[in-house]
Amino acid sequence: MKTGSPKRSYTVEFRQEAVRQVMEVKRGVREVARGLDVSEKTLENWLRAARRGLPLVKGEASQVENEHTELVRLRAENARLKMDVEILKKAAAYFARENR
């Protein structure tokens, strides 16, 4: 039976910072994972949880952790929506010029 490296444990703060670097600072998953010495799959799991508003650790999470996770998710969603609005503004301006 092959045994892998021992399972590593990460603090909630560490996980939140890793997620923040990808979602808010807009660094790539591979880049952040390498910089923090975390597997890409692990970081992707944390991102998936954050985007769904779930706690980044298994078990009971405190209210503060839940609120922080929700804040990170909402900030990412807000950034995406701002981009959508900019695209729609440009499209509206284009079509307005075309109809003159």
Number of domains: 1
Radius of gyration: 19 Å
Order of helices and strands: HHHH
Distance between the termini: 74 Å
Identify the notable features of this structure and list them briefly.
100 residues; mainly alpha
Task: Summarize this entry quickly.
The protein is 68% helix and 0% strand. With 100 residues, it is an all-alpha fold. It is elongated and about 65 Å long.
Written account of the structure:
- This protein has helices at 12-23, 29-36, 40-51, 63-98.
- By secondary structure, the chain is an all-alpha fold.
- It has one domain (12-98).
- α1 packs parallel to α4 (63-98).
- The longest helix has 36 residues, at 63-98.
SSE layout and pairing:
Elements: H1 12-23, H2 29-36, H3 40-51, H4 63-98
